[in-house]
Amino acid sequence: MASVNAQIKRGSAELAVLTLLAEHPLHGYEIAKRIEAQTGGVLRFDMASLYPMLHRLERKSWVKAEWRTLPNGRRRRCYRLTASGRKQIAPLRAQWRAFFQALESVTGFQNA
Amino acid sequence: MPDWKLIVRKNLSVLVVCSPEFGEELATHLEDNYEALLCEGLPPEAAFQHTIGQIEGRCRFWLVMRCLREDLMTRFIHEVALPGLLTSAASCFFYWALALDNIRPKVNWLVGGQFHILPLWWWCLLPICGALGAVLSRRNGGSRLKRIAASLFPSAIMGTLVLLIFVAGFTISGLANHYQLVFTRLESLGLVPPGFVVIPAVFSLLGAGIAEVSTKKFGRRV
Lengths: 112, 222
Description:
The complex is a heterodimer of chains A (112) and B (222).
Chain A: H1 2-23, E1 26-27, H2 28-38, H3 47-59, E2 63-69, E3 75-81, H4 83-107
Antiparallel strand pairs in A: 1-3, 2-3
Helix pairs in contact in A: 1-3, 1-4
Chain B: H1 4-11, H2 20-39, H3 44-52, H4 57-99, E1 107-111, E2 114-118, H5 120-139, H6 144-151, H7 153-175, H8 179-189, H9 192-218
Antiparallel strand pairs in B: 1-2
């Protein structure tokens, strides 16, 4: 069960990050804050989860990171989605949709 | 304003092995977090304690462990282990091919009154394996040290094996007081490590060196 749990966490985080980056490039802190804000604090990424995942996505060439100077003069490592990463979003969404439908059919959690 | 780069460097010095930029990236995260807490109205001391808590104690442990697992292990697998295993497979293939009947160019050598077989032609083919390991590691972004490690992988495997056999054999024989067996193993050690570990390592390194020089000379990434 622990491995399934870890995989679910990992998969959901990847989809959330890729979806956010599909809009525009963001740096690590922005990604964490936006996910937290958009989910009402249900999903939170600490540094230990976020950065290893971002680096994993970078190694897969789904995202590309580069240092940018922000309007306030500060340098931040911003991540942007690559063409390869963009292609991953639809299959990942389909997988999650199938997962939730399967879960719903067993637990009926939607009607609970 | 606390110097977050310095704090990260002190608290997470081990992460430098992952990437020199990584520490800087974490420092920017902490800086943003600290400022956001100040904007929320927290006093500086509380904001500092809250922020630094992300790289202390259990958080620090998990951060280091996950980063090492993701970055270091993955890179080690891609840049050393996989090229090294392919190099080992090529080395085994050459040894197997040469051991076939009719293509068995080995040299017998007299050591300590006994004849031993030296796989001379196998050694001559090992620079190809060494070069292969170095080239594959380079393709995956391996540093010079990792390229050397990948080319020496077969010798490292053989060395570990010989060492294990020797230690296990010596321990068992020693316990059973079979001094003759221990003596024989000691004598055989005089040939086995040079023949299957040290000399192959030298030939593999030669191949890695040739690959390195030719890559630089022709100015292209193989």
